[in-house]
Design a protein that fits this description.
The chain has no helices and 20 strands. The two termini are about 15 Å apart. The chain is an all-beta fold and about 210 residues long.
């Protein structure tokens, strides 16, 4: 849903479903993402009509972060074309996990936990219901993709040779992309092949969530 300014938020690499109705007998509809600056077509997504409802639906997924205008372009049986701007879209960059000090990307396991309102217990967020993996592993650049519905959450990150990181609890009031950098501290200890001898530490890797 758009915010009070009519802007829809997304995150690079996340698939999102769009569904709309159309009148006038269109035979082809596509969603086109145009540059806000110069109106240039940047990405295009074909929509398919569902035979049971007559609605048009498709998946939009943006490769690059930035600000876009989402325009619906339709063609009817007579070859007549029409278009309409439906929303402005802001696509946030993916989140990252990096090493403290040198900002090198980390191969980490990221988990999202959700506060269940009825039981008031923290549980692993059911990302599959929203087409997302949870837990998920970062890519070679340390990136991970996350778009959360309304609720209270915290995120953990674990990686070999690093202290486990746990974010502060944060609240999402409307479905939003999560775009943040999690910084992990190297674990104090000796790594002897498969034997990891950890030294005592009195600090934990805590990263504050930020939009």
């Amino acid at each position: 849903n758009p915010d009070e300014k009519g802007i829809v938020y997304s995150v690079a690499g996340i698939d999102q479903k769009i569904t709309l109705s159309a009148v006038g007998g269109p035979t082809n509809i596509k969603a086109v993402a145009k540059s806000v600056e110069n109106n240039q077509n940047l990405e295009s997504f074909n929509l398919t009509q569902m035979p049971d409802t007559g609605l048009w639906t498709g998946i939009i997924s943006f490769k690059n972060p930035g600000a876009y205008k989402l325009v619906i372009e339709a063609v009817d049986g007579g070859g007549n074309k029409t278009s309409r701007i439906i929303n402005d879209i802001y696509v946030a960059p993916q989140s990252k996990v990096v090493s403290e000090g040198n900002n090198e990307p980390i191969n980490a396991k990221v988990e999202v936990f959700y506060l269940e309102p009825e039981s008031s217990r923290w549980t692993l967020w059911e990302g599959a219901s929203y087409g997302q993996a949870n837990p998920q592993n970062t890519d070679p650049l340390g990136n991970f993709k996350l778009f959360l519905p309304e609720g209270k959450y915290y995120i953990t990150a674990t990686a070999k040779g690093f202290t486990r990181l746990t974010t502060d609890i944060f609240e999402v009031n409307q479905s939003k992309p999560i775009s943040t950098t999690l910084t992990m501290d190297k674990k104090l200890g000796l790594d002897l092949g498969k034997i990891d001898i950890s030294l005592p530490t009195w600090t934990t890797g805590i990263s504050r969530y930020r939009f």
